[in-house]
């Protein structure tokens, strides 16, 4: 989902009334990022509080390529990583994941081996349908038991886009919340639906209801479901004890637009790139009675912060035996404080860019290869910026391309290398980058097991 897909972030059709109300009752984070412009590395970062290059979710084959886990990849989340649900169990939490896991499909990578008590969903996304022989359709699990497969037992109509999966995931969420409230158990729910990932789907009630086509139908159903979850918390009388955070794992996939992809608002490019459109996400925090209503924060945030913030809520400290990249967002949420921190933009094992304050320096630029581009694969359709959206891996490590995101959120006008502003900004950024490099002890790459791990 893209930064520009919600009414609260300026989407003109205003088809997300529940998320917009969530924002009006809580806090918008306008400068919130994912840790990687692709699904699996960003999810690994969310649950470990660590950059993918530290937790093993990166590739080294083909410089700066992204990593993902389709069903034929053997890798997954390493046992050495400590996931948020594993740590929350120490404080008595019951943990459930609903939807897309994407951190490995083999038994040793199963969510219930990494801190979750319950799971309803799939190891990967609903990419298929496959041929059921060499590439079977993606399985759906309830805990350890496979209960069916996408397209077969869980129908997705590729002609109409109809599928009831979001409704199933919604009911799973409501039932889990009710059960934990009845037993007075603290809980962590990771609701990871995938309806806005191509091939996009929505249930019959929502099909044809959006001005934005099928993608808009899917967004409207997600919005409606989140509204029902928030109302359920209020009905059960536990909303003031429950922090709810909404965000996305990467920007809208413009390669699937316009029919199957969303909007990244004013930002450049989309999913798969380290331009703003690929990594800046919509983000809303909601906690009635604690987070002041109608708040807007310019805190630089990251999905990794949900790890550290979740531990803080549970009265736990982050692990001290490893580098944690997430920060505790509670001071920003509850007191409106701004914490000085950089944002690092990685593809594979390469730091492509860094943001410090309102300045963003690109040390490498690359959208996708000429070979892919010639086949119609375009991560930046209609957004060619000369010297910026490059189709070869352009190195700028000696003189990084520098943008002021306040004046130029679309990354169209790099600052002059000769300007005083460039010199002052790069002096500060260079210190941040050097300090970051000194902390880098990369984990063992888990995904570069075959060429198919590269996308």
TrEMBL record:
SUPFAM superfamilies: Alkaline phosphatase-like. Binds 1 Ca(2+) ion per subunit. One of its GO terms (cellular component) is lysosome. This is N-acetylgalactosamine-6-sulfatase. Residues 1-315 form the Sulfatase N-terminal domain. Its EC number is 3.1.6.4. GO terms for molecular function: arylsulfatase activity; metal ion binding; N-acetylgalactosamine-6-sulfatase activity. Its cofactor is Ca(2+). Pfam families: Sulfatase, Sulfatase_C. It is found in: Lysosome. Homodimer. Ca(2+) binds at residues 39, 249-250. Glycans are attached at residues 164, 384. It comes from the Eukaryota. The modification 3-oxoalanine (Cys) is found at residue 39. It catalyses: Hydrolysis of the 6-sulfate groups of the N-acetyl-D-galactosamine 6-sulfate units of chondroitin sulfate and of the D-galactose 6-sulfate units of keratan sulfate. Belongs to the sulfatase family. The active site is at 39 (nucleophile), 102. Keywords: Calcium, Disulfide bond, Glycoprotein, Hydrolase, Lysosome, Metal-binding, Signal.
């Amino acid at each position: 989902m893209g930064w520009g897909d919600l009414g609260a972030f300026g989407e003109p059709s205003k088809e997300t009334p529940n998320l917009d109300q969530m924002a009006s009752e809580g806090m918008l984070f306008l400068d919130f990022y994912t840790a990687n412009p692709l699904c699996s590395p960003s999810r690994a970062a969310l649950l470990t509080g660590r950059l993918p290059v530290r937790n093993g979710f990166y590739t080294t084959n083909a410089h700066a390529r992204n990593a993902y886990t389709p069903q034929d990849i053997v890798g997954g989340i390493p046992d050495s990583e400590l996931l948020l649900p594993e740590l929350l169990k120490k404080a008595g939490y019951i943990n459930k994941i609903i939807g897309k896991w994407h951190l490995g499909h083999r038994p040793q990578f199963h969510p219930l081996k990494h801190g979750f008590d319950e799971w309803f969903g799939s190891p990967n996304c609903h990419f298929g349908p496959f041929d059921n022989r060499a590439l079977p359709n993606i399985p759906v699990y309830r805990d350890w038991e496979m209960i069916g497969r996408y397209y077969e037992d869980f129908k997705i109509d590729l002609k109409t886009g109809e599928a009831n999966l979001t409704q199933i995931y919604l009911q799973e969420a409501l039932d889990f919340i009710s059960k934990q409230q009845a037993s007075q158990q603290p809980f962590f729910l990771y609701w990871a639906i995938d309806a806005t990932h191509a091939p996009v789907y929505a249930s019959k009630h929502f099909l044809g209801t959006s001005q934005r086509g099928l993608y808009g139908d899917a967004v409207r159903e997600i919005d409606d479901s989140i509204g029902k979850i928030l109302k359920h918390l209020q009905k059960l009388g536990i909303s003031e004890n429950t922090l709810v955070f909404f965000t996305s794992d990467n920007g809208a996939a413009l390669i699937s637009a316009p029919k199957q992809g969303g909007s990244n608002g004013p930002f450049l490019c989309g999913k798969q790139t380290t331009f703003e459109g690929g990594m800046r996400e919509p983000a809303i925090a909601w906690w009635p009675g604690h987070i002041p209503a109608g708040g807007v924060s310019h805190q630089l945030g990251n999905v990794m912060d949900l790890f550290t913030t979740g531990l803080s809520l549970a009265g736990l400290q982050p692990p001290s035996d490893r580098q944690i990249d997430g920060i505790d967002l509670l001071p920003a949420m509850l007191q409106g404080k701004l914490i000085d921190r950089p944002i690092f933009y990685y593809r594979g094992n390469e730091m492509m860019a860094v943001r410090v304050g309102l300045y963003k320096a690109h040390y490498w630029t690359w959208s996708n290869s000429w070979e892919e581009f010639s086949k119609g694969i375009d991560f930046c359709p209609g957004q060619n910026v000369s010297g910026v959206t490059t189709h070869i891996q352009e190195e700028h490590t000696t003189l990084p391309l520098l943008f002021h995101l306040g004046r130029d959120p679309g990354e169209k006008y790099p600052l002059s290398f000769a300007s005083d502003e460039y010199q002052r900004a790069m002096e500060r950024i260079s210190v941040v980058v050097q300090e970051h490099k000194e902390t880098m002890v990369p984990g063992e790459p888990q995904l570069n097991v075959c060429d198919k791990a590269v996308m």
